[in-house]
Design goal:
With 215 residues, the protein is of the alpha+beta class. It has 2 domains: 42 residues; 147 residues, OB fold (Dihydrolipoamide Acetyltransferase, E2P), CATH 2.40.50.90. The protein is built from 6 helices and 8 strands. A 5-stranded mixed barrel has the order 1-2-3-6-5. A hairpin with a 2-residue loop joins strand 1 and strand 2.
């Protein structure tokens, strides 16, 4: 009987620890979402929030932001489609669709080698998922009308994942928008993918998309 009581107490204590651990994880998740909600409230003004502007406005060509010291904001939104290897289709808080360009990379253009593989890679990473977007709330869309943002899924930098897989170049046009640490990480990821002949680096002389666009 005494052994049974000890076993019961031990089981209760073990369950208590597990439940406490689960509660702690729930708190951590809740805090993350609350932080995103607070940051979302900071950018509620439609005049400076690209994730609430009308689609017709969001697609107007505008100059890119170029200050790495600009104030950054974060918002959690749903990926509803993939346009190409570096462009997401996001459903914003007004349930409108918006094109979002992954900051820091350039993937093969449609018609180039590995453009389909780059699109499939990005699709496998984030399609249908909720992602965190870090962006300049006062920034303007790029020359193709896309909002430029750093995109995270479960703490992973999605643009960096594309570079690591060999399906995108580190695009130095975004250097001023990136931290020194990010610039180093992206450059090293491209170098490693190249040496390992991953993705587009399986070709002996792949054409960078910015050169392809000038042809």
């Amino acid at each position: 009987m005494r052994n049974f009581v000890y076993l019961l107490l031990s089981t209760i204590l073990t369950l208590g620890c597990v439940i406490t651990g689960m509660a702690q994880r729930r708190v951590d998740t809740t805090e993350l979402r609350e932080r995103a909600a607070q940051q979302r409230r900071l950018i509620e003004d439609p005049s400076n929030n690209p994730f609430k502007i009308e689609k017709s406005e969001s697609l107007k060509p505008q100059p890119q932001p170029n200050a790495s010291s600009a104030v950054r904001a974060m918002v959690e939104l749903q990926v509803v489609g993939i346009a190409d290897g570096d462009t997401l289709i996001i459903s914003n808080t007004a349930r409108q669709q918006l094109l979002v360009r992954l900051q820091g990379i350039d993937a093969p253009e449609t018609g180039q080698s590995f453009s389909r593989e780059a699109l499939e890679s990005l699709t496998n990473l984030v399609s249908g998922k909720s992602v965190m977007l870090e962006f300049d709330p006062h920034g303007k869309p790029d020359s193709e009308g896309r909002v430029v943002a750093k995109v995270y899924l479960e703490g992973r930098d999605i643009a960096l994942e594309q570079v690591k897989a060999g399906f995108a170049w580190f695009c130095k046009d975004y250097k001023k928008m990136q931290s020194e640490s990010d610039r180093y990480s992206y450059a090293e990821a491209e170098k490693e993918a190249r040496h390992a002949s991953r993705g587009l680096w399986r070709e002996s002389a792949p054409v960078a998309p910015w050169k392809y666009r000038r042809q």
